[in-house]
Amino acid sequence: MDFNVKKLASDAGVFFSRAMQFTEEKLGQAEKTELDAHFENLLARADCTKNWTEKILRQTEVLLQPNPSARVEEFLYEKLDRKVPSRVTNGELLAQYMTEAANDFGPGTPYGKTLIKVGETQRRLGAAERDFIHSASINFLTPLRNFLEGDWRTISKERRILQNRRLDLDACKARLKKAKAAEAKATLWSDEVEKAEHELRLTQTEFDRQAEVTRLLLEGISSTHVNHLRCLHEFVESQTNYYAQCYQYMLDLQKQLGSSKGEIFSGTFVGNAESTSPPPAATSPPAVAAATLPAVPTIPVVPTIVGVPNTVAESVLNPNEVKPPASGTRKARVLYDYEAADSTELALLADEMITVYSLPGMDPDWLIGERGNQKGKVPVTYLELLS
């Protein structure tokens, strides 16, 4: 019991001595042991590393999970050392809604078919996002957290110990200085000075030992930078793969929708079979595509002679029997895949080259296309006319 009381009294005395030394230093009434310039640079570098690591970690968490409530939930699960429950991504949720809508509207309708296609792509995008988040969390976020919760806590603890050792050292220096001043006035015995010098040697030894321990930990920040650099490369690789997957998925979807769009514009998707007039969209090319293509009338057409039956115009319904004009044909590059709606049309593959020309009486949104021995109508909006 007496030992505990003495220990508490000793600890209180040490705390009071440190507090007095710290206060006097702030007021400029006591000397302070300064660390060497290299040590100060190590401290500044460590503080900079800690601050920027925290900011990068927090913002990466926001990038991977924009929902703050979800981030708080994940944080609590981690602190409780429990597995974070699987969460549906926004893309997967959108895919679910689109699929359900398609079933309500009719999966066989043009809108329903398109919803199913887009929904499937959104599901794949959501799955790719999930894989990216998982990879980034393991390869990037986890090492940053480990540094802040492991290495940095150790460094902070040793720095606090070093600060206490420095305060003890400076307090001993102050006591020795006062003892020597009292000895000079013959108010103290020399053994008091010897006692102060002995305490100073002990505190100096402890301070030097703690300074060396702290220095080694601070120099380890260089290894931390190397590790974080490797993790950063892995994060960039994961992000690159993720965006490459997304681009490929959207490219595939664009081709699918381009083919479907051609069917819509060719009049295949007529909503009411009893309707006697075609829908307005059947002959209206997309605004963007039309704006980027040369005007169709630049292709010469076969002239129509007054009084003579226009046999060519009558044979447009069967392009295989149509002969190209002697002049006026042009080359065209196919922009998108196109599936022929019937035998009068020519199926197209993206990036292939075909020969095109116009005939009298044809819809201006269509041309006759030839590829080898194959011939048929092709939509202008799917072509890039070459000079």
Describe the oligomeric state of these chains in a short phrase: single chain
Q: How many helices? A: 9
Radius of gyration: 41 Å
Distance between the termini: 104 Å
Strand and helix order: HHHHHHHHHEEEEE
Note the beta-strand portion.
5-15%
In total, how many beta strands? 5
Categorize the overall geometry. rod-shaped
Characterize the biggest β-sheet.
Answer: 5 strands, antiparallel
Specify the structural class. alpha+beta
Helix content range: 55-70%
Integer average pLDDT: 80
Low-confidence stretches: 265-317
Lateral arrangement of strands in the main beta sheet: 4-3-2-1-5
Write up what this structure looks like:
By secondary structure, the chain is an alpha+beta fold. Helix content is 62%, strand content 6%. The protein is built from 9 helices and 5 strands. A 5-stranded antiparallel beta sheet has the order 4-3-2-1-5, with no helix packed on it. Strand 2 and strand 3 (366-371) form a beta hairpin. The longest helix is centred in the middle third of the chain and has 75 residues, at 110-184. It is rod-shaped and about 130 Å long. The protein starts with a helix and ends with a strand.
